[in-house]
Amino acid sequence: MKHILAASFVLAAAVAAHAVETKAPAAAVREFKSVNIEVKGNKIWSPSFFVVKKGDKVKITLVNTAPSGVHAFAIEGIAGTEASVDNKEGANTKVVEFTADKAGIFRIYCPMHAGHVGGQLLVLE
Ligand SMILES: [Cu+2]
What we know:
By secondary structure, the chain is an alpha+beta fold. The protein has one helix spanning about 1-20; strands spanning about 30-40, 40-45, 50-55, 55-65, 70-75, 85, 95-100, 105-110, 120-125. The chain has a single domain (about 30-125), classed as Cupredoxins -  blue copper proteins (Immunoglobulin-like). The chain is built from one helix and nine strands. The strands form two sheets. Strands 3-9-8-5-6 form a five-stranded mixed beta sheet, with no helix packed on it. A hairpin with a 7-residue loop joins strand 5 and strand 6. Copper (II) ion binds near residues 43 and 116. Copper (II) ion (CU) binds near residues 43, 112, 113 and 116.
């Protein structure tokens, strides 16, 4: 009888654990770091291509090491993603956070310089 009770308890625990697993997963937090570098006059946020899933919370830490000065970052069509980042040591970091609430391909660019090499954010359905 003890064995049956123990087995029943284990089974109930397994069912309960399974019930927890089948709940909708909490939104993932995707964290990235992108550094602005300069190669022969080309300013580049590196990496400049990010892949997330719809519903994810996204956090991108931007560090500007380009000697040419302040550069900016923005993701077209997603509010709250624009930041200008100074290149002064100790003050050259900004964090952009947003929720990827729509799927698609979004252009990443520097709003200050049209020639700044751009990138893309891919939000999967
Ligand atoms: Cu720029």
